[in-house]
Amino acid sequence: MDLSTVQSKFNNDQYKTVDAFIDDIRLILDNCHRYNNPHDFVAQSGKKLEEVFDRLLLKRPSSTVIVTDSDELMSDDKIRLCNNALIEMNKKKYDRINWAFKQPVDASAWGATDYYDIIKNPMDLSTIERKLNELQYKNEDEFVADVRLMFQNCYTYNAPTHPVHQNAKALEKVFDTYWKKKAHKTSSSSK
């Protein structure tokens, strides 16, 4: 069982009850947990997807209408591409330049008390990762926009001579190099 099969069954009105739909989603998740090493990317993604699914189930009314739109879901290949870009930027070899971008800015710890007055839409690698894992991006362009926002926030707040500004330029170059190479390869292979 997989999400495309669930989508196909839904589109062909093969689900007679909501429970039948839920059972197929549970089957996907159970298979994922059963056949993958718990530390593999697929198993970790399955666990996060299950958490999101469980939260959504808690919110459903007693009579649920299932609405799906495959155009609003990023493909597995694109999710993997985005996740790998995050892995690349978080690599240990880039610790000297990525440290300021791994978590949300702690304005009080850095003495940047006006940070949130100036930066209205803060962004960091952990927030981008959370949004990706919670399937909040409809496509890779939204993912890239958040990565660019993270860098732009840094450039807006920090002068070009500031070390964090310079680190952002270096990390953006890492991202751009990776993204051009991998995104081009992914789009070529999907044709």
UniProtKB/TrEMBL annotation:
BP terms from Gene Ontology: chromatin remodeling; regulation of DNA-templated transcription
Per UniProt, the keywords (alphabetical) are: Bromodomain
Q: Would you tell me the Gene Ontology cellular component terms?
A: chromatin; nucleus
Q: Which Pfam families match?
A: Bromodomain
Tell me where in this chain the Bromo domain is found: 1-43, 93-165
Matching entries from InterPro entries are given as:
Bromo_chromatin_reader, Bromodomain, Bromodomain-like_sf, Bromodomain_CS
Annotated protein name in UniProt: Bromo domain-containing protein
Species in which this protein is naturally found: Circinella minor
Instruction: Output the lineage of the source organism.
Output: Eukaryota, Fungi, Fungi incertae sedis, Mucoromycota, Mucoromycotina
